[in-house]
Amino acid sequence: MRIGLYPGTFDPITNGHMDIIGRAVKLVDRLIIGVARNDDKGPLFTTNERVAMVRAEVAPLGDRVEVRAFSSLLMHFAEELDASVIVRGLRAVADFEYEFQMTAMNQRLNADIETVFLMADPRHQAIASRLVKEIARLDGSIDSFVSPAVSAAVRARVKDAR
User: Fold this and answer.
1) Which residue pairs from 140-144 have beta carbons closer than 8 angstroms and sit at least 24 positions apart in sequence?
2) Could you tell me which of 5, 60, 10 has the C-alpha nearest to residue 27?
């Protein structure tokens, strides 16, 4: 069984993430979405909230997709899952430079786990969770970047923070 791992913070999960997930699930027998615990980034949502949000968003994809939180080194998490593929999305050249370096390091840690890059659909190339949060904080509409449920959750959280 080919297991793929798509890691990220998903704070919040965007339409761009969902595009990558929808395409990645076609490449593997099982896709695990790894929600990184990264309190240093000052996330808008807790890890448990992000896991629940991602689970709700991927539910229509069925039982071939699983969502799990992790706080370990990515390669250790991938090994624990017996993943053979790490899926990463690319939006722009800046993403590639970072991902290229990360992939080289990961390959040194475990050469048996391949990294597969999926280019973001052009409609989603500008979407970044960081920008979605900033737009919401400044009372802009984020409805074209995230699902209605995620939009409502972000707006509520931003409103509570004021």
Assistant:
1) 144/15
2) 5
DSSP letter assigned to residue 94: H
* Residues annotated catalytic, as ranges: 17, 41, 91, 129
Average pLDDT for runs of 10 along the chain of length 162: 97 96 97 90 91 98 96 96 96 81 94 94 86 94 96 93 70
Pairing of strands 30-36, 3-8: parallel
How far CA 7 is from CA of 52, 115, 143, 144, in Å, comes to 15, 11, 24, 23
H helix intervals, the chain: 15-24, 47-58, 74-81, 93-109, 129-137, 148-161
57 Cβ neighbours under 8 A, 6+ residues apart: 13, 18, 147, 149, 150
CA distance 74 to 59: 24
The model's pTM: 0.94
Distance between CA atoms of residues 20 and 117, nearest Å: 9
Q: Specify the DSSP class assigned to residue 155.
A: H
